[in-house]
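Reading group handout, session on sequence-to-structure problems. Before we discuss, look at one worked example. The prompt was deliberately terse, the way you'd type it at a terminal:

> structure Phage integrase N-terminal SAM-like domain-containing protein

The input record follows.
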Amino acid sequence: MESNQFIVIYRPLPKAGRIKVYIPFQLKNEREKFKKLNTSFYHPTQKLWSIVHTEENWKLLQAIFNGIFTIEESVKKSIIPSKNLNESSESILIALKQKLILKAFSQSTIKGYCSALRPFLSFFEARELKDLSKEDIESFVYHQISKYKISESAQNTLINAIKAYYEHVLGRERTIYDIQRPKKSLVLPNILSQEEIKAILASVENLKHRTVLMLIYSAGLRIS
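And the output record:
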């Protein structure tokens, strides 16, 4: 088999939540096997599959891909350096927070936007933010993705934070911030089998607790 037809299993870092796997396009059967595994997930921007990181899953992957895989070391993400902002940048964060509060944004959104905007303010500390072009902003977002490997979720939070500043604080038109975003990941739910559901319910000895779980499952109730 040619080297480019081998499946690559990336050895997860100690605290990694998932095991990343590269499956060449032509290996359809192997890809279908992986898709049937519990907790399997596809990351479109990385073109990688993943599964929850457990010792059992690590051994399982090597077993089902026996003879057609290689193992590569995962590269640890770079940590975005923390830097104290100057007085002007701190005032921008205060102004953004005030605007978002007045517009009834949630506290978690406000906190996320202010945190995401700090590297942006630090990066352009010597420039006037009102004079930045769309290309300047996209270059910064690309810099964060390529250097620090920020996640799809972090990319969107960063872009939304920048948009919020220009739109709500500076009062710019919405069309100015039409910058490239990562494609949204499509998450397919992993459904438990009837046997797995029976095992879960049977493991609960307390009748009241078992009744509650049966009600939740049969009615399709959500956490909220």
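Points for discussion. First: The longest strand covers residues 7-11. Second: The helical segments are 28-35, 55-64, 87-102, 107-123, 134-148, 152-169, 194-202, 207-219.
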